[in-house]
Amino acid sequence: MTGTEMFSLIKPDGAVKGKDPKLAPDELLHIYRTMLRVRAFDEVCMKLQRSGRIGFSIPNRGVEATQVGAAAALRKTDWIFPSYRDFGMALYHGVTPTEMMHTMYGNGADCAKGRQMPVHFTFTDPIKFFSISSPIGTHIVQAVGAAYAMQYRKEKHAVLASFGDGGTSSLGFHSGLNFAGVWKSPVVFLCQNNQWAISCPSSSQTASASYAIKAQAYGMPGVLVDGNDVLAVRQVTLEALERARKGLGPTLIEAYTFRMGGHSTSDDPTKYVPKKLLAEWEKKDPVTRFERYLAKKKLWKQPLRDKIYAECLDEVGDAVKIAESTPPPALETIFSDVYATVPTHIRRQGQAAFDLAARKGDAAAGGGAFPL
Amino acid sequence: MTGTEMFSLIKPDGAVKGKDPKLAPDELLHIYRTMLRVRAFDEVCMKLQRSGRIGFSIPNRGVEATQVGAAAALRKTDWIFPSYRDFGMALYHGVTPTEMMHTMYGNGADCAKGRQMPVHFTFTDPIKFFSISSPIGTHIVQAVGAAYAMQYRKEKHAVLASFGDGGTSSLGFHSGLNFAGVWKSPVVFLCQNNQWAISCPSSSQTASASYAIKAQAYGMPGVLVDGNDVLAVRQVTLEALERARKGLGPTLIEAYTFRMGGHSTSDDPTKYVPKKLLAEWEKKDPVTRFERYLAKKKLWKQPLRDKIYAECLDEVGDAVKIAESTPPPALETIFSDVYATVPTHIRRQGQAAFDLAARKGDAAAGGGAFPL
Amino acid sequence: MATLTLIQAVNDALKTAMRTDPNVLVFGEDVGPKGGVFLATDGLTKEFGEKRCFDTPLSEDGIVGAAIGMATNGLKPIAEIQFQDFIFPAFDQIVSEAAKLRYRSGGQYTCPLVIRTPYGGGIRGGLYHSQSGEAYFCHTPGLKVVIPSTPYDAKGLLLASIDDPDPVLFLEPKALYRSVKGEVPEGRYTVDLSTLRTAREGTGVTVFCYGAMVPVCLRAAEQAAAKGIECHVVDLRTLLPLDEEGVIDAAKRTGRVVVVHEAPRFCGFGGEISAILAENCIEWMEAPIVRVTGFDTPFPNTLEHHYMPDDRRVLDAVEHVWNY
Amino acid sequence: MATLTLIQAVNDALKTAMRTDPNVLVFGEDVGPKGGVFLATDGLTKEFGEKRCFDTPLSEDGIVGAAIGMATNGLKPIAEIQFQDFIFPAFDQIVSEAAKLRYRSGGQYTCPLVIRTPYGGGIRGGLYHSQSGEAYFCHTPGLKVVIPSTPYDAKGLLLASIDDPDPVLFLEPKALYRSVKGEVPEGRYTVDLSTLRTAREGTGVTVFCYGAMVPVCLRAAEQAAAKGIECHVVDLRTLLPLDEEGVIDAAKRTGRVVVVHEAPRFCGFGGEISAILAENCIEWMEAPIVRVTGFDTPFPNTLEHHYMPDDRRVLDAVEHVWNY
Ligand SMILES: Cc1ncc(C[n+]2csc(CCOP(=O)(O)OP(=O)(O)O)c2C)c(N)n1
Ligand SMILES: Cc1ncc(C[n+]2csc(CCOP(=O)(O)OP(=O)(O)O)c2C)c(N)n1
Ligand SMILES: [Mg+2]
Ligand SMILES: [Mg+2]
């Protein structure tokens, strides 16, 4: 694999090119269901945002195969260093829509205690899904550090670091891939090339022939894969993870796909995405492509999509109900977790905030005395 | 040129491989003399440092061909964004040893007004030799900005950005080459691979097959050249500059050479440089190699080296005398050039410093009243 | 004279500068066809072409580094950093390079660039779309740091920053982008980069503030006035170099001082104001110098209204020093 | 008990920690076979192998970024930044990431790392081998910032930093590396990260300082004593979190305060001390709170002895507040 030829498994008609990975039917259906779950979660969040019930979301339509395919290659003992667009990886491994919805609302049950914007998830169970950061690229080199710990302890685990095409210009990309090359780190770098960094196309991002080819600069293999082909993504990720576990070092994978929605709910893509291009990629929908494959395996026919999608919508709808009825975080959450123990100056500021809230009759204060 | 095969022109015996560049004898001798000038400047500075007359210097033995070869390809209207090891580029273009020695002493005639450490030169005439910074790599992307100004004004000038093997790990390398690729900047990136970043060999710097190959990540040609072959370095730099002037974009050149001295006068390389390796490279001395070429052209035979080197030592010796008899910078130089005009708070601090110096009878204060 | 929002005034300043000086360029992430995530650069690529207003790769280090090179070679770059929270990858270029170039080159190379970036809370942006980092930059000799709070000042200060021969960090209070409107003259005018602005006259308590805290303090001053305390509200607007004389005069006027900013308190800009007063006119002070600031924690999301100083907290402090 | 220099005490602390905890790793530029440019890590690769003490590529962003990943996955990384001046490429990793990880993950991921780096002037290092950047980091909630001034504290504070569950920036005064010596116990002991140290008792003038300024202030105190002024010299040693009670008590003791640091004055750490006092005990102050600091300029080279506060300048300030 040279970093410029694109690997795919499922042909547009659903037939297999080359060797069928022969996954068990329930694994195939779990993959399928997860893709629909992502889509349902996405659709609901977009509506919640439009109606002002949550502040922000990040659309995933078009890129579900990349996320779910990569997640399907991981073991529960591996770590994920995700980007903010990686809903699907968490869902695949069993994080529930309810846990995620708490973060969308930033309520008192949110894992991040309402401190982060929506979509900035953080989970430790059932898989290490590292706390998402807004600054682009910083996590790429952190992933290499986490992988060093695995090497050091002689564990056979690996790390998946996921980022966008824009992320390749970041500092963390350069230092991350460079360190991983030198250290032969058990890391798989997944560049999700969805062709946009907000409004900036790849032509303003880099002059390199592909993103995968950047691997050469760091002495590691670069693999270009069809990001709308869930089984192809799973396959190359699996192979890269195997290399990693064997001590053969890191791999850079570029998954070539297309962001069908805006960058976020704050973005209007019609200002910069050519209509024709959008229409072209609409035809390459990754869910439909996978359904054709499943159909050839006799695992799929309509109304299976409608049925599962309805179930997913229900599930997400329930999550919304639970999240909406969960109260906001307590005032003390502003002051805790800055350090393991609250230092005096922060304790004093917290106490003042409690006093003020109590004096002004503010709900968030709870009991009234600063409890930390 | 692929970035892994090494280009050279002068064979070890001085014969030409391929096409002779056919430079005029006085140009060849200027190149030769400059190499010896670097060596003389270097030798004198090492001694000055050892005897405590200057604080610091950076040895250049072994890498003269790379510096001088690259400089020889430039026009006076081009800009140099140098690294701290690039004595030779300034000397080639006519900066005098005296001007440079002022900086080694940080005296009142120093272009940098005694603010920088030795070797951190800054010249605007006869060529733009950009102010050297200690932080590694920051200038690489600045060079791309300077080149943008040339493009914008439709000038046919170009920029040479020079840095070490260690510099390729820096942030400025990544952003610099990436921006230059996208902008098709008239920049030549010269990576002087002298095989060490202080004590760190390339094996701890990167896993890539060469430094030149990193060009691929940015969509530009990468050229590997024998850095001990002054004419080969000149040749590839010239070709890269021509591409740049034609609007065809940047090139990354890796000049493969060897740092024969310590990193700096503060460093003891015997702690980490294998003796055998040093002996091997001793045989590849770039000055001797070039002499063999000149000899074949009937331009050189002993005692020409001794004669020229003695002249160079004299010249540098004179520079030392002038620099040593030049007084230190005036106290006001601490406070000027922070901004174009001195703001009130700095003026007040300057006045206080003058008052104190005057009260304590301190020479540096000069007249006694803060003059800015 | 048109009535503009603060963001429209920024856009107007950029257009005014670009129309009069062909060396003025604008670039950053999404500033081109999209016109910037807040639309500060709306219409610039269309009017001035993509050599003068353009998108860059996603690298703040690159954006500022390239701007330094342009600036030192005769252009007037205006770099946008999408959110101030994302300026830190460029910290080295700003602090080690832009701020020190004139000095270290003995004045032979200079760096007249402008970095514009929205800062501050109030949009439910959480840790990374809400920060106020002015103190990091104010501790850096060689930089100028400017923060407008009105549309008039936004245009005049930005044009002055573009004229300035040294690097200027221009911090725009995003909470005010569309929430304040004001009259803005057409064409070129500048507001001097070294004088504070008296936003409200008063003899009771002096309140120092800047950016998005100015309207907050003015609201608190209204409420204080209702209680018989007349606040003297000072909009510092250029934090570095600071109008120290003006600060000292304003403090002496009342002898009672409150300093307000959104950023965390510890080692924040407010400490410098307190220190200047404690050093230069402590004997005029009739009460403790009180700071009302963001807490010494990262910026939260859901509870940001508790984190950011509001008129209640400012009023509390004003009453405290008044009654002292 | 051995008599060690400050740099030997640092080396001793590293060895002590590595001997007792296999999860402690040391890495950075030239820390391996060379033993660090100041020899802080001398002998570590030899004793502990190259998996535990090793050289990295030339990238501070990478060094700190990787350290964060190691720290959050169970190791105890000690990263060396060769000079504090070169920490800025890692500023984003430190300020946006290490400092905020515990908070933003609701406590699920933590970042117990130590960054060691030599800071300060006195070695004719010019702009880029002399800086004191503590204020940049002290304005960052989530970090701890520690600066020793004696060999005993260097070892005890470094071991406490290694034990700490949060990210610690450990700034080493390079001017003191070999110029101070002191008794240092063998084996493990720690010095608490939240208390100041009284370096000299006195009732006349309180002098706050840290790091390389401590011996300078003690010299000035000797000279002041000769003139009949007894200085109370406080070595702050942990700047964040600061022992605010201790600071206030020490200031109240004399009612006259001088604050000393090498870093530029404007928005420096000294401002925070002044502000805390102006807010908490202004009525105890019998004189202006005077700062003696580096100038608000970059750090020069040839004239560095004029730039850095020396005993003359400290004594001047002490006399000024004493005679006020
Ligand atoms: C350091 C930094 N700069 C700028 C931003 C603002 N920003 C958020 S997302 C984004 C584009 C990212 O594009 P890409 O990496 O391709 O990921 P995608 O959104 O396409 O998945 C930008 C510029 C940021 N978050 N961090
Ligand atoms: C950002 C930064 N980090 C660390 C240093 C300290 N340092 C000075 S030179 C050097 C090695 C540079 O190696 P290389 O780029 O190969 O250049 P060479 O000295 O070999 O010419 C290091 C680490 C620095 N100057 N800047
Ligand atoms: Mg993208
Ligand atoms: Mg080198």
Describe how the helices and strands are arranged.
The complex is a heterotetramer, with two copies of chain A (372 residues) and two copies of chain C (324 residues).
Chain A: E1 6-7, H1 25-50, H2 64-72, E2 79-81, H3 87-92, H4 97-105, E3 128-129, H5 138-152, E4 159-164, H6 171-183, E5 187-193, E6 196-197, E7 200-201, E8 222-226, H7 230-245, E9 251-256, H8 275-282, H9 286-296, H10 304-324, H11 344-359
Parallel strand pairs in A: 1-8, 2-3, 2-4, 4-5, 5-9, 8-9
Antiparallel strand pairs in A: 6-7
Chain C: E1 2-5, H1 6-20, E2 24-28, H2 44-48, E3 53-55, H3 60-72, E4 76-80, H4 91-97, H5 101-104, E5 114-119, H6 134-138, E6 144-146, H7 151-163, E7 168-173, E8 181-184, E9 197-200, E10 205-209, H8 213-226, E11 231-235, E12 238-240, H9 244-254, E13 257-264, H10 269-280, E14 290-294, H11 304-307, H12 311-323
Helix pairs in contact in C: 1-7, 3-4, 8-12, 9-10
The complex binds thiamine diphosphate (2 copies) and magnesium ion (2 copies).
